[in-house]
Amino acid sequence: MPHNSKIPARPRTHDLQRENPNLPSYQIVVDDVTGGxxxxxIRGYIEVNGEKIRxxxxxxxxxxxxxxxxxxxxxxxxxxxxxxxxxxxxxxxLQQKLVRGDFEVDPVAAEASKKKEGHSHGTP
Length: 124
Prior knowledge:
Blueprint: H1 16-19, E1 27-35, E2 39-48, E3 51-62, E4 65-71, H2 74-84, H3 87-100, E5 104-105, H4 107-120
Parallel strand pairs: 1-5
Antiparallel strand pairs: 1-2, 2-3, 3-4
């Protein structure tokens, strides 16, 4: 392969708001993380238009980098469809934001979760 050959650029991630500026912005808040060495269960909510819509997911990563697989209940999907329209695009946007660390952590809930997990493993 010649030295001056170009490596194809990776597709740029897209924000839903950049694609469609009429969509409302949303915040992601993680309020519970439990798990082990390979994967963690995360729970949180999406805050949009003053409404909180819950999600959970699995965060994992070792070989090949970090990844997050968010999961939305059928009710959450219905609520998100009413706000954003295309739920599949929203889920992709949510996943990308979680992987990039574009979220808030609820410190009170996170501390309670840490105490709960420590207690369940027999540590004070």
